[in-house]
Amino acid sequence: MAGILAWFWNERFWLPHNVTWADLKNTEEATFPQAEDLYLAFPLAFCIFMVRLIFERFVAKPCAIALNIQANGPQIAPPNAILEKVFTAITKHPDEKRLEGLSKQLDWDVRSIQRWFRQRRNQEKPSTLTRFCESMWRFSFYLYVFTYGVRFLKKDFGIMFLHHLVSIFLITFSYVNNMARVGTLVLCLHDSADALLEAAKMANYAKFQKMCDLLFVMFAVVFITTRLGIFPLWVLNTTLFESWEIVGPYPSWWVFNLLLLLVQGLNCFWSYLIVKIACKAVSRGKAGKWNPLHVSKDDRSDIESSSDEEDSEPPGKNPHTATTTNGTSGTNGYLLTGSCSMDD
């Protein structure tokens, strides 16, 4: 075990030439980040999780109720042991052949079985109230973390954590090899737009359409400015070129910069999606109401609907008719037409 630890903490990987771990020990004159401090991430993560539970229940939920956001969930599928077994053990999306087999077995028509599976899938998705509480928590968390990061940038030192895997590696590397300022800058820049996105989602769930549109535009502007402007021209330029001239490359330097380039690649991809959404939203907005945060294709949170079936009709024995609807509204009361999503 000692050999593995010695190999992992090899000074020639983590540190520039002519620098040792002894040089990074805390003294009365200087304080350096210590790798052992990262163990505090585990109890801190648990504490944040508990704070989230308390916040969503006693702060976010009352706010949602005050905004008349209902906790009504989707219609419950009638109990059926055979269909439930297929749903839980085989597939949640039966194909045509399986539907025909179930139709013969239950003496139901195919459309009633399709309706049952759609209702059953909808049961597992959170309500608008739950999604509002989640967005309010993330809004509060991102806003606090961003403010905290700005504060510590003035002191040239800080310990930051994020929930994305790449960000965890970045902060670990920046902390261990004494690039804490770079890690703090990266986190601060990438937190700056998140609060606006969650605020836009909250406005969307509360059906404040104009506010949602404005917040989404603000989010897009801040996102693209920070991630395609400030991040590559300021941070990447310093870590790739200026640091090369100052300390030269070494193994952990390469890993750190490769992770930063990976983040920049993701930033370019996400910016492309945001611009694509904005362009579609503007073009569709000319013809009528648009909603940039409409989540018609969000598998986690959207309720499936059908334009030619009525979900309120429970499946029974030998049903032969199906009532049609006009298909004009989704589960959150937004038009299905004139909307756009990240998957378009």
Tally of extended strands? 0
Question: What gyration radius follows from the Cα positions, in whole Å?
Answer: 26 Å
- β-strand percent reads under 5%
Specify the biggest β-sheet: none
Shape: elongated
Number of H/I helices = 12
Task: Outline the structure in words.
The protein is mostly helical and 344 residues long. The chain is built from twelve helices and no strands. The longest helix is centred in the middle third of the chain and has 38 residues. Helix 3 packs across helix 7 and helix 10 packs antiparallel against helix 11.
List the helices and strands and how they pair.
Layout (H helix, E strand, L loop, with lengths): L1 H7 L2 H4 L26 H26 L14 H9 L6 H11 L3 H14 L4 H26 L11 H12 L3 H12 L2 H12 L3 H38 L4 H35 L59
Short structural description:
The protein is 60% helix and 0% strand. It has 344 residues and is mainly α.
List keywords for this structure.
12 helices; 344 residues; mainly alpha; 60% helix
